[in-house]
Design goal:
Layout: H1 2-41, E1 48-51, E2 53-54, E3 68-69, H2 71-83, E4 87-89, H3 91-100, E5 107-113, H4 117-129, E6 135-138, H5 151-159, E7 163-166, H6 182-196, E8 204-206, H7 214-222, E9 227-229, H8 238-243, E10 251-252, H9 259-278, H10 283-291
Parallel strand pairs: 1-5, 1-10, 2-3, 4-5, 5-6, 6-7, 8-9
């Protein structure tokens, strides 16, 4: 058994080496053309950033460290984007532009998952400083809990022109729950957000843990959502949005210890991986295999 396993691993290593060698040869033979295509591609799509908590780690020992960004690091992201000429907007604006055929060159979407209170106390004041808008995906059952936004914060972000989105009623993984509960997680979440916040109509959905399937998509459309964001990395273009408005791409922003340079790398990956998808290479396929 060990001998057989060793042979299989050796064969896989040889295959990987051959593929890398072929990819390198292919790139060097087509480098000039590919660089030109890549530069043009960057102008037709928009990345969407996914944040979670922004603020102090104090009292949050159980939170994933990488998903808690300091206010200083978050501001460095906003400052960099502004200096690079980006217009920072909510998901609804990205979706509108893609749908209407308007330019999204140098547009970038900003989203926050889970409805942490520091999104209101730390992130939004920084966003306003740089003229940024964003979408805040809240979990209905968590509204008003410690460390989560309550009615005051949600009314305030709406008054500031931000978009309110649904992260479902309870944050259950939608593809894994019984289908009969999808109405509760999706339709009920929209109903109560509309009821509690001056009849605000929620159109954007974020899948909890990026978990969804074709049934979830169908039900989300049925219950009134116009668009949804995933955890898949890539670029949102007119073609991708027309084909799959319920599967918009996002870039997970985390504190990887590399400061602003780490952010720049993640942003560049969104553009590059989106470009690879136009060549029939989707890194999300490999990602899903290992995650699931």
């Amino acid at each position: 058994m060990k001998v057989m396993l060793k042979k299989i691993l050796s064969a896989i290593c040889v295959l990987i080496i051959c593929l890398c060698s072929f990819a390198y040869y292919w790139w060097t033979q087509n480098e000039a053309r590919l660089k030109e295509e890549y530069a043009a591609f960057r102008k037709i799509g928009a990345p969407i950033l996914m944040y979670h908590a922004v603020g102090s780690r104090e009292g949050k020992e159980n939170w994933p460290d990488s998903l808690i960004l300091s206010g200083e690091l978050f501001e460095s992201h906003m400052k960099y984007l502004k200096e690079e000429g980006y217009t920072i907007v909510a998901v609804e604006e990205i979706a509108k532009r893609l749908s209407d055929g308007e330019s999204v060159d140098k547009f970038i979407g900003l989203t926050f998952d889970d409805g942490y209170k520091n999104n209101s106390t730390v992130a939004i004041p920084i966003m306003k400083k740089y003229g940024a808008k964003g979408t805040f995906f809240v979990i209905n059952q968590d509204i008003g809990k410690p460390e989560k936004m309550g009615d005051t914060e949600i009314f305030s972000l709406l008054a500031d022109g931000m978009e309110l989105g649904s992260h479902t009623t309870s944050h259950a993984p939608l593809a894994k729950i019984e289908p009969k509960f999808l109405a509760w997680e999706l339709s009920t979440s929209r109903f109560y957000l509309k009821k509690n916040y001056n009849r605000y109509i929620v159109r954007s959905l974020a899948y909890p843990n990026g978990d969804y399937n074709e049934l979830v998509i169908a039900k989300a459309k049925e219950y009134g959502f116009y668009r949804a964001v995933t955890g898949h990395i890539g670029l949102n273009t007119p073609d991708t949005f027309k084909k799959a408005p319920m599967e918009m791409y996002r870039v997970t922003v985390a504190d990887d210890g590399n400061g602003l340079e780490g952010f720049k790398k993640r942003l560049e990956q969104a553009y590059f991986f989106g470009f690879l998808q136009t060549k029939g290479i989707d890194v999300n396929v490999v990602r899903d295999i290992f995650i699931k």
